[in-house]
Design brief:
The protein is 41% helix and 14% strand. The chain has 224 residues and is of the alpha+beta class. It has a three-stranded antiparallel beta sheet with strand order 4-6-5. It has a two-stranded antiparallel sheet with strand order 1-2. It is elongated and about 70 Å long. The N terminus and C terminus are likely disordered.
C-alpha cells in the first residue's frame, strides 16, 4: 500500500510494515532485498531506490582553490627541462606564476607586476614570456592579458575547458585564413595544429653530468 515500506522475504514474497516509508528506509530495504535475492529475469520491478554519497572536497592551500594540471607536463616536460637547464630559472618561475594565477586559463597582469612579485628585472620577465610563448605554453594578448595553455593547466571544469579550447583553435584557423586566404580548408586545419594551444615544448637537453653546486663559491661541482 502507498505510504508503507515493502521488503522481500527469503521466498520473494512481500510483507508490509507499519513504519513510515522514508527515502532512507526504502533504500535500506531495497538493498537488503537485493542481497538476499535479486529480481527474477523478466519479472517487473515495481520500484527501486538508489543511495548516494558526496565526495569530500579537496583541501588546498590559500583561498584561490586549485587547478587541474597535466601530470605528464609536470613530470615529463617541466621537471626535466628545469633539471637539465632547458629552461632558465626566470622562465620556470614566470610559467609557474602564471599557472598559479590563471582562472579559466586567463590572467590579466603587467610584466612589471610579475617582475615585482618574483623579484627580478622587468626585461627578464618580458624575455621569458616571449620564449614561453614560442613553446606554446602561454600566449600574450592585448591589454596585459596572458593566456595559459589550457592543455597544461586549467582552473575550471571540463565543459568550460572544452569551450575555451574550441575558441582558441577557432581563433588559430581564423588568423590563418585572414593572413593566407589562398590556403585550402584542409591546409588550414593542418597548419592550425601547429599553433596555440597545441603544446610545442623545446628539445630536451642531454642529461647533465655536472650540475651547479649551491655553495659559497658558486662553482661547478660533480653531480651526485
Amino acid at each position: 500500500m502507498p505510504g508503507e515500506a515493502h521488503s522481500s522475504t527469503s521466498k520473494g514474497r512481500r510483507s508490509t510494515s507499519s513504519r513510515k516509508a522514508t527515502p532512507s528506509l526504502l533504500a535500506d530495504s531495497f538493498a537488503e532485498a537485493l542481497e538476499r535475492q535479486p529480481p527474477k529475469p523478466g519479472r517487473a520491478v515495481q520500484s527501486a531506490s538508489v543511495d548516494w554519497r558526496y565526495r569530500a572536497p579537496h583541501e588546498a592551500y590559500g583561498r584561490s582553490g586549485y587547478s587541474q594540471v597535466s601530470n605528464e607536463f609536470l613530470s615529463e616536460v617541466l621537471a626535466v627541462l628545469i633539471a637539465r637547464h632547458g629552461m632558465s630559472p626566470v622562465q620556470s618561475a614566470v610559467l609557474v606564476f602564471c599557472m598559479g594565477r590563471q582562472r579559466e586559463g586567463v590572467l590579466k597582469i603587467t610584466h612589471v607586476k610579475i617582475a615585482s612579485h618574483l623579484g627580478v628585472e622587468r626585461a627578464n620577465v618580458t624575455r621569458a614570456l616571449s620564449t614561453l610563448e614560442g613553446w606554446h605554453m602561454v600566449q600574450r594578448r592585448a591589454n596585459s592579458v596572458i593566456v595559459v595553455n589550457p592543455l597544461i593547466c586549467f582552473k575550471g571544469n571540463g565543459d568550460v575547458q572544452e569551450k575555451v579550447l574550441g575558441q582558441l583553435r577557432q581563433d588559430a584557423r581564423a588568423a590563418l585564413k585572414k593572413h593566407f586566404p589562398q590556403m585550402r580548408d584542409d591546409e588550414v586545419r593542418e597548419a592550425a595544429q601547429e599553433r596555440f594551444p597545441e603544446l610545442r615544448p623545446p628539445a630536451t637537453p642531454k642529461p647533465r653530468t655536472r650540475q651547479l653546486a649551491f655553495g659559497d663559491n658558486d662553482s661547478e661541482g660533480q653531480a651526485c
